[in-house]
Amino acid sequence: MTKANKPNPRNRSTTSRNSFSDSKNSSTPKRTTPYNPAMAKAKALPVHLEHLIRLLPEVLKFDAPADMTVSKYFKENSQLGNRDRALIAESTFAVLRRKLELAQYAQSGNGPLFRRLALLGMMLSLSEGGLGTANRLESALADLAFVAHPGEVEWLQRFVSYPRESLTEQVSANLPEWLWLELGNQVGPVERKLLSEALLKPASLDCRINSLKAKREDILAQLNELGGRYQSVPTPYSELGFRMLGKPALQNLQSFKDGMFEVQDEGSQLLSMLLAPKRGEMVVDFCAGAGGKTLALGALMKSMGRLYAFDISARRLARLKPRVAKSGLSNVHPVWIDSENDAKVKRLSGKIDRVLVDAPCSGLGTLRRNPDLKWRQTIETVSELQAKQYSILCSAAKLLKVGGRLVYATCSLLEQENQTIVNEFLKNHPHFELLDPKEVLRGDFPMINDLPVGASVDNSWWQLWPSKHETDGFFAAILTKKSALVAEKAPVDEEVVDSE
Ligand SMILES: C[S@@+](CC[C@H](N)C(=O)[O-])C[C@H]1O[C@@H](n2cnc3c(N)ncnc32)[C@H](O)[C@@H]1O
Questions:
Q1: Which among 14, 29, 84, 136 has the fewest CB atoms less than 10 Å away?
Q2: Which residues form the active site (predicted)?
Q3: With a 6 A CB cut-off, is 44 part of the ligand 1 pocket?
């Protein structure tokens, strides 16, 4: 469930400032504080807090993904400028990231609970560099001069300095109990602590150069010339990636409009490289969605061969089409399928060189950018996903030629959606084999300490961790088909196997 590539309201930001002053919408917060000329330069204004106080209860119902609720709110309040939106959205996401800790602290203090939560969220967002500047909490407090009353400033100051040791480890980690326990069992308490700390930091804005149209050094030079929030550095591992130090409005940038680069988390870029598609090959991106990885694969194929982008969501595939047009790729064929068992899939059986299965998953590896997922997923939703993941993997595998490569991937941190699915698949499909990333990626892949990034000395899984790699969390297994199995000649047998 990677959302890494989706333009996100949290990434918007411009220079519009005074959009709060005039509203035709009677239910929209109005400016109640007397005008003070210093307000023109202030980062946070009372009207932002008022919007946040209205938005938070909606988001915290968890009826829908938080970014959808936030986008809907901004549509209904179209007078808000991009900078206003960025502050309100970042503050909302800061509350979602630290919900347990903030809810506990907000038991103290005065005034309505949502005002207290909103003030805490705004202070954190102003201190996290959410608007492109890395303020410390103290200077964030100064930014709240027009927003918080004197008593509230003192209360916020106490939050900055109160001893975190008084919190339980789970509350400090801001994880629901089931996930806290699950991660403890799976990665151990030390890794769990590092992981939960990393997941509390907002994700950076990473981009991937479209190698068909641009060179990284040219785009970096252009962005660094613009300076300010456009300043960027190369990503640590992906040779096509760069990381922006702020979160500028990319849609205003000609090179972005011309498809010279795309927004894509560095982890997602590396994951696409695992498939290593060659020009002229037949490739399927089985769960293509809006095409974040499809575009990366198409560019690796130098726009030659055939790249099918399958998905059951016509809405997501519709978003892929303009991105393909902008990228200049001519080898991408979006195909809507009604399920993983669609006849269009069956027609390509045994004909495909490389298949990527970027399976629908809990998305728990993306908590830096989708913190609401930790409050919306449960152990039950994870186990419901398993059946779908297994079924998609089995159908996608039927596409592969002998000797071809299949990558099964998720952006989940949990073994249930990762190792368990692949082990079950291998048990029931002995003509497939798990390849070791240490061997297959050597030579052609970014390395750390003489190991391909994401590979492990201990096993043959490929994993990226926010705590180690500063990317979203990703899992992948690289599989190959050793032979055309008996079961393929006798589909009835295979169906029995697959339905287990
Ligand atoms: C993790 S997202 C894909 C993200 C995408 N690959 C990207 O890089 O932007 C999973 C996708 O699987 C799709 N999906 C869900 N069930 C499916 C199925 N049975 N067959 C194919 N795609 C499916 C969802 O619509 C969703 O777009």
A1: 136
A2: 411
A3: no
CA-closest candidate to residue 378, choices 178, 210, 228: 178
pLDDT at 127: 86
pLDDT of residue 38: 67
Residues 230 and 144 in one domain: no
Residues in the chain where the model's pLDDT stays below 70: 1-38, 40, 129-135, 485-500
Cα–Cα–Cα angle for 160, 164, 166, nearest 5°?
Answer: 130
Q: Please list the residues that pair with 410 across neighbouring strands.
A: 475
On whether residue 147 sits in a domain, the answer given is: yes
| pTM, 2 dp | 0.89
Q: What is the pLDDT of residue 163?
A: 81
Q: In this structure, what are the phi and psi dihedrals at residue 457, rounded to the nearest 5 degrees?
A: -70, -25
Would you say the CB of residue 286 lies under 6 angstroms from ligand 1? yes
Mutational pocket test of ligand 1: of 8, 274, 310, 311, the residue with most ligand atoms within 8 Å of the beta carbon: 311
For residue 247, the model assigns a pLDDT of 86
Model pLDDT, residue 431: 96
Give the closest residue to 240 by CA, choosing from 284, 266, 219, 209: 209
Last residue of a domain, one of 167, 183, 215: 167
Range of the domain at 114: 9-167
CB atoms within 10 A of CB 274: 23
For the Cβ of 472 lying below 6 angstroms from any atom of ligand 1, the answer is no
pLDDT at position 7 is: 33
In the chain, the number of structural domains is: 3
The torsion region of residue 214 among left (phi > 0), alpha (psi -120 to 50) and beta comes to: beta
Catalogue the active-site residues. 411
Let me know if 313 is exposed, middle or buried by CB neighbors in 10 A (0-12, 13-18, 19+): middle
In a domain, 179, yes or no: no
Tell me how far apart the terminal alpha carbons of the chain are, to the nearest angstrom.
24
- Asked if residue 176 is part of any domain, the answer here is no
> Are residues 322 and 410 located together in one domain of the fold?
yes
Q: What is the pLDDT of residue 386?
A: 98
Predicted local distance difference test score (pLDDT) of residue 81: 92
Nearest atom (ligand 1) to Cα of 286: 21
Residues 259 and 392 grouped into a single domain: no
Structure confidence at residue 92 (pLDDT): 98
Asked whether residue 28 falls in the same domain as residue 155, the answer is yes
pLDDT reported for residue 443? 84
pLDDT of residue 45: 93
Whether the complex's predicted ipTM surpasses the cut of 0.95: yes
